[in-house]
Amino acid sequence: MVKRSTDIYSKKQRWKLILLFLAFFIIGGSLTLSNNMVRKVSTKETAKARQWAQAIQKKAALVRFSQVTFGSLQQKERERIAMVVSAQKTLLNPSNLGLNQDVDFALQIINGNTDIPVILQDDRGAISQFKNIDLDSNLKSKAEKDSALKVFAARWINEGRFFSLEVFEGFTMTYTYDESAKLKSLKKQSDSLINTFNHDLIRDTRLMPVVLVDSSRTKILATNLAGSQAELVQKINDFQRLNDPIRIDLGTQTQWLLYDQSPEVKQLKWFPYIQLGLIALVVLIGYLVFSTFRRAEQNQVWAGMAKETAHQLGTPISSLSAWLDILEDQETSKDSLTEMRKDIERLEKVTDRFSKIGSETKLENQDIVSTVSNILDYLRPRLSHKVKIVLEPTVQFEKVPHNAPLMEWVIENITKNAVDAMEGSGTLTVRFSSSRKYANIDLEDSGKGLSQQQFKSIFEPGYSTKKRGWGLGLSLAKRIVESYHHGKIFVLRSEIGKGTTFRISLPL
Q1: Exposed site from 331, 344, 426, 434, fewest CB < 10 Å?
Q2: Position 5 pLDDT exceeds 50
């Protein structure tokens, strides 16, 4: 007994050390992984922030430089056209035809415009002159050419590139112009650089998920995300909900940058929960292991105590049997001897019960009603005469697998608890019923009842409502029913001041 207990405690200590080491290993590994992830995310996010800051600065500088440059070029071209308009006015005004010097100078100015497309229209919109415009070679007739020129002129007027030319009072012509091919080429190159800059930057998959959209936030200009158009539109909605969009002012237009957190940051958010879950798992495993050891230790203590009790009872029971034989030879009262013989048989059964604790229990197909009746018949004369035991008409069971001595022990323990609850006066009613899988035995007393909180605690070892009680009777009954018979025992119902009903369910 001592050696087996020592083995149990040695194993428990080893398991404690193993679990402690495992807990430190998991916690240490988790913290190391967490720190590495934090460093990685910190470095990466810092690099992203710097990259975006530098990119925005460069882009803003590029946009400002382009705006200044193109504004200056546009102004110079407008000034040139203003001179051409003035020269054209000189040629068109009849009063200036005698001034050969002025006419020659005006012609030089007009002829000097070799790159800016211009169109001159009269007050009725008819095309008077045009220059530096490449018309479609498919346009053959004058009407087709004039129609195409009028489209150009209308667009340039809408864009604000025109002059009103008053030739003389009551006659005004319109001089429209477009940007020169050189200026358009520079603008195209600048836009190409900006767009290339945008795409090279935003399509970098190493960056956080980003989407560049137009001012209405509906058209996708660039993104580093893969997926269909519908998926990207959903991403736009998600990103706007998760983070405030970044406004990018390009001077002539506004764009919005929508973004999400990087995968590492998202993982880092969940990591503490995972870490706590792992720690909780270790604690749970430890609790289950130690609970198993504790139960194993309790089982061994129970078995050891029971077997030792059976061993100690064996000698006095043998002596009592011998003395009873002597009394029978001396012609002592037979009634007294009969009751004494019953008590000795009872002691032998108790000894047999204790000897079975911790051993493999043999279940036999027997009449459960007869088993219950036998123990109740024995208990009736030994309980208070104020306690009435009623065995109601029962259903007819097929034989139920059980160990009769152990089941008698269970019924005895519940009966004695019921008598204590009734304080020596009341009625104990025993009923039988069956379900598809179980044979049920209900023991209903008229005692003081139990609260809802006591339904489970009364089966715990050491729990007792009596001042002088060990609190082992119902715990032992539960062990016999559940561990040895694979059945169930529980409080079916109870009400304070009216009584309690226990149910024992044995598999059929």
Answers
A1: 331
A2: no
* One CATH from 3.30.565.10, 3.10.20.600, 3.90.1150.10, 3.40.1390.10 for 360-507: 3.30.565.10
With beta carbons less than 8 A apart as the criterion, state whether 457 and 490 touch: no
Residue 457, phi-psi category: left (phi > 0), alpha (psi -120 to 50), beta (remainder)? alpha
Please state, in angstroms and as integers, the Cα–Cα distance from residue 455 to each residue in 410, 450, 460, 472, following that order.
17, 7, 10, 15
3-class DSSP assignment, residue 435: coil
pLDDT at res. 213: 79
User: In this structure, what token pair is assigned to residue 492?
Assistant: 């079916």
- Please list the residues that pair with 438 across neighbouring strands: 507
- Distance in Å from the first CA to the final CA of the chain: 37
List, as one string, the DSSP characters of 29-42: HHHHHHHHHHHHHH
- DSSP assignment, residue 480? I
Q: Report the 10 Å Cβ neighbour count for 379.
A: 18
Find all residues with CB under 8 Å of 498, minimum gap 6, and list them: 446, 449
- Pair type for strands 438-445 and 426-434: antiparallel
Give residue-wise pLDDT tens across range 318-362.
666 666 676 766 666 666 667 677 777 767 766 776 666 656 678
**3-state class (DSSP) for residue 442:** strand
Residues of the chain with CATH 3.30.565.10: 360-507
Q: Rounded distance, CA 389 to CA 342, Å?
A: 20
Q: State how far the Cα of 463 lies from the Cα of 469, in Å rounded to an integer.
A: 9
Q: Given pLDDT bands bounded at 50, 70 and 90, which one contains residue 4?
A: very low
Q: What is the 8-class DSSP label of residue 171? A: E
Cβ proximity of 183 and 70 under 8 Å: yes
Burial of 410 (0-12, 13-18, 19+ CB in 10 A): buried
Helix axis angle, 404-421 relative to 368-379, nearest 10°?
50
pTM flag (> 0.85): no
pLDDT at 263 over 60: yes
Cβ proximity of 439 and 368 under 8 Å:
yes
pLDDT by residue (tens digit) across 11-61?
A: 666 777 887 788 777 777 776 777 677 677 756 765 664 576 467 557 766
| Phi and psi, residue 443, nearest 5° | -115, 110
3-class SS shares of the chain: helix, strand, coil, % to 5: 60, 15, 25
Write the single-letter amino acid at 165: L
Residue whose pair of structure tokens reads 């044979």 in the numeric block:
439
> Which of 454, 396, 389 lies closest to 425 in space, CA to CA?
389
Query: Residue written as tokens 């590994």?
Result: 29
Residue 47, number of CB atoms within 10 A of its CB: 12
